[in-house]
Amino acid sequence: MSARWLVALMVGVVAAAAVGCAGDGSATPAPPRSPEVSGTWRNPGGQALRPASGDVPFTPWGAEQAKKERPTFSSDFRETTDPAVLYADPNGYPRIIMHPMKFKLVQTNDYVYQLFEYNQNWRQIALNKTHAPDDVPTWYGNAVGKWDGDTLVVDSTGYKPSTWLDSRGLPHTDNLHIIERIRREGEMLLVELTFEDPGAFTKPWSAQLKFERVDDGAMIETIYTISDELRFRERFLGVPAPIPIRR
Amino acid sequence: MCRYVSILAGAICALLFSTATSAHHGATSLYDVKKETTLKVTITEFTWTNPHVEVGIASVEDKSARWLLELGSPPNISNRGWTAKSLKPGDVVTVTFNPGLRGMRVGRLLKVVLPDGKELLA
What are the average pLDDT values for consecutive 10-residue runs of chain A, which has 247 residues? Predict the structure, then answer.
């Protein structure tokens, strides 16, 4: 028998052994399936990011900041302070999930991903991990999560203080800490949020949001750019664009 | 009594926030939301874009009377049956819109009635 035939025989034996082992039941069993929150969800409208009872417990700084902000729907659009309109900034969190456009939750063994239709932004929740030590402020924060029964508990920090918590101009500082409890109830997704931020709030407070399931999970590309905003202002407000804009 | 106050407060809140989420650019500061204008028009432009789809119209009776109307964002109006091909230049339709507040020939489109009677709501 030549050396070439001997090598071929050995490869065959090893391959057969590998196939046999894969099917003999001794392989590591698959981890138990996590509770199901995946799917496409949408804010049905008519809900606010506010405590179930009472007012948001603002610190003097928080109250003053909230009073200074000028949302587009309650003030002259041309004088708005809304960073998502003024600078086409990302919406931040949790404002993005309250947007009328959809979002999708995708579960893997290591992460839960939130994919937002608006501007094709996304956020990741690392499962069973701790916060990164070099936690620098980002638009969508540094989020870690774990399963508590059928509830995904998400702990997040590191949010850029320039974002608003909602479209009404609810402020926060860079010490914002959000705890979310996300679970499914039939065809609805319930998200209970608790906000801690000693700079903006005198004590932690909670709000609950509900989202309806969307059967058709298709999401449309909708990326909103500075050019879009300048073109809108030029055409609808008569404000000349200060720079050349894409048409 | 308390129950009715709660229901009323809830209804006001729902109205406020449903309005808030429908207008990225704050319709109340740009358009006369209490006034609705209905016209038979020719479509001069239908631009499927962000932040809002743009619709150019010219009155059938007076072609010099032209407006530029805004619709919602593509994903939002897609949920209500709109597509990028719902309208095209040259189509003759009936539109209802809130006219602009500041003298510009702009408006917020509320409804389109197609020649076959089908309605597209903003």
Answer: 48 43 52 78 94 95 96 80 89 95 95 95 96 88 95 97 96 97 95 98 98 91 88 90 87
CA of A23, closest CA in chain B: separation in Å? 47
Contact A49, A166 (CB under 8 A): yes
Yes or no, beta carbons of B17 and A45 under 8 Å apart: yes
CA distance linking residue A10 with residue B75, whole number of Å: 59
Kindly determine whether residue A77 and residue B30, on different chains, have CB atoms separated by under 8 Å.
yes
**How many CA atoms within 13 Å lie on the side-chain side of A158?**
16
Q: A 95-134 residues with CB below 8 A of B? A: 98-102, 117-118
Tell the CATH topology of B30-121.
OB fold (Dihydrolipoamide Acetyltransferase, E2P) (2.40.50)
Q: What is the dihedral of CA B79, B85, B91, B95, to 10 degrees?
A: 20
According to CATH, the topology of domain A39-237 is Lipocalin (2.40.128)
With H, G, I as helix, E, B as strand and everything else as coil, classify residue B35. coil
pTM of the model: 0.78
* Alpha-carbon gap: A183 to the closest alpha carbon of chain B (Å): 23
Mutate to test the interface with B, among A41, A73, A233, A247 (most CBs of B within 10 A): A73
